[in-house]
Amino acid sequence: MSVPRYWREIPRRSRLEAAKCKDCGAVVYPPRCRCAKCGSVEFEAYRLPETGTLVTYTIVRNPPKWFEKASPYIIGLVKLEDGTTIMSQITDIEPEEVKAGIPVEAVLRKVMEDGDSGIIEYAIKFRPRL
Fold first, then answer.
1. Which DSSP helix (H) or strand (E) runs through 5?
2. Handedness of CA 82, 44, 123, 66 (dihedral sign)
3. CA 26 to CA 57: how far, in whole Å?
4. CATH 3.40.50 for domain 49-130
5. CB burial class (10 A; 0-12, 13-18, 19+) of residue 11?
6. What pLDDT sits at residue 8?
7. What contacts 24+ positions apart, CB below 8 Å, involve 95-99?
8. What share of the chain is helix, strand, coil (3-state, %, to 5)?
9. How buried is residue 90: exposed, middle or buried, by Cβ count under 10 Å (0-12/13-18/19+)?
10. Where do the domains of the chain lie?
11. Contact criterion met (CB below 8 Å) for 91 and 72
């Protein structure tokens, strides 16, 4: 990925931003071209809440290429305070300690590096809320 393209995409990568249908009010995350509820193509930016509850999860022990060093890691469904459900990596907790129903909050964490001198990519993950 080129450096200019990476920087252009930062708002989408560094905050929980969804699309809200102007016709029916449905919240779409990640943003799409067409509303699944009413078919509209008219959206506005919508900032999602950064706290919610872990609904369910799985522990990835056989990761895809480039994520071997992170194994094992947790992927979960998080129901945000506004009712939107999103999939995200769960961080700052050991796989043996995670359980459905825990309160979580969004944090910005490193995802990967493009080689030793490449761009470090960050994304939103969720951690247990104290």
1. helix 3-8
2. positive
3. 25
4. no
5. exposed
6. 55
7. 95/59, 98/54, 98/57, 98/59, 98/74, 99/54
8. 10, 45, 45
9. buried
10. 1-48, 49-130
11. no
Residues 6+ apart with CB under 8 A from 72: 59, 60, 61, 95
Q: What is the pLDDT along the chain (130 residues), one digit of tens a residue?
A: 566 566 556 555 567 889 999 999 999 888 889 999 999 999 999 999 999 999 999 999 998 887 777 789 999 999 999 999 999 999 999 999 999 999 999 998 877 777 666 777 778 899 999 7
For residue 3, what is the enclosing H or E element? Answer: helix 3-8
By residue count, the chain amounts to 130
